[in-house]
UniProtKB/TrEMBL annotation:
Protein name, entry field: biotin--[biotin carboxyl-carrier protein] ligase
SUPFAM superfamilies noted in UniProt: C-terminal domain of transcriptional repressors, Class II aaRS and biotin synthetases
Keyword annotations of the record: ATP-binding, Biotin, Ligase, Nucleotide-binding
Keyword Disulfide bond applies: no
PANTHER family, sorted: BIOTIN PROTEIN LIGASE, BIOTIN--PROTEIN LIGASE
Catalytic activity from the UniProt record: biotin + L-lysyl-[protein] + ATP = N(6)-biotinyl-L-lysyl-[protein] + AMP + diphosphate + H(+)
Residue stretches making up the BPL/LPL catalytic domain: 1-171
Organism taxonomic ancestry: Bacteria, Pseudomonadati, Pseudomonadota, Alphaproteobacteria, Sphingomonadales
Highest taxon of the lineage: Bacteria
Amino acid sequence: MIEYLAETGSTNADLLERVRQGERVSEGNWLVAERQLAGKGRQGRTWFDGAGNFMGSTVVEVRASDPPPASLALVVGLAVYETVVAIVSEPGALALKWPNDLLLRGAKLAGILLEREGDAIVVGIGVNLGKAPDLPDRETIALSALGPAPDRNQFANSLARQLDTELERWRTFGLPPMIRRWELAAHALGTELRVQPPGEDVLLGAFAGLDDSGALQLRLPDGEVKVIHAGDVMLAREEG
Ligand code: BTN
């Protein structure tokens, strides 16, 4: 079920509040807003309020039998990738960037914010369908750069179906096939990355795939492979 709102602060904040109030938000239910006046991004950033873009959130229950919850970031990234790749005809134009940004022609097309409250993980997704923000520190793009912007409600239906499918695969077949698919959908091995782990110095290195838990492996200039569990990752050719 998809509930549409004309305007709200943040669909993530709304669902977190519902969970905190003890409301049961079932998996498969979504809250989608036309406008977000206080949209939240990762690392305390704000998220662009682009009318007609996809801005929506849903909830995933953490179950004891699930793969590690942190790997949900990859699962949601794959769901967004598969939804978008079905409507993008430019070969090789789309790429996932760890942990779950989606790039189109190397610029940011979509972002994902996961926030946990008890056994519920609120999954927020923003996809630039018609408009992209001008940001000083990173390139952004909207699907309208390739042709007419997709219809927001049709996009929401496809994404909701795709996330159901990916969650079922994750729970049924486990993490290893998701990691392999994620790597195939990502930028090439060897891509130069600039990584900012929280509270640490910036690292420059080459993408060396993911480890068994889904963490990022970065090959440093001295050949050491460093495993990154959290941080902000940019393609080295991006600014900022
Ligand atoms: C990122 O910084 O890349 C994550 C962006 C997540 C944005 C979405 S839009 C819908 C949901 N509500 C929010 O306030 N944020 C997420």
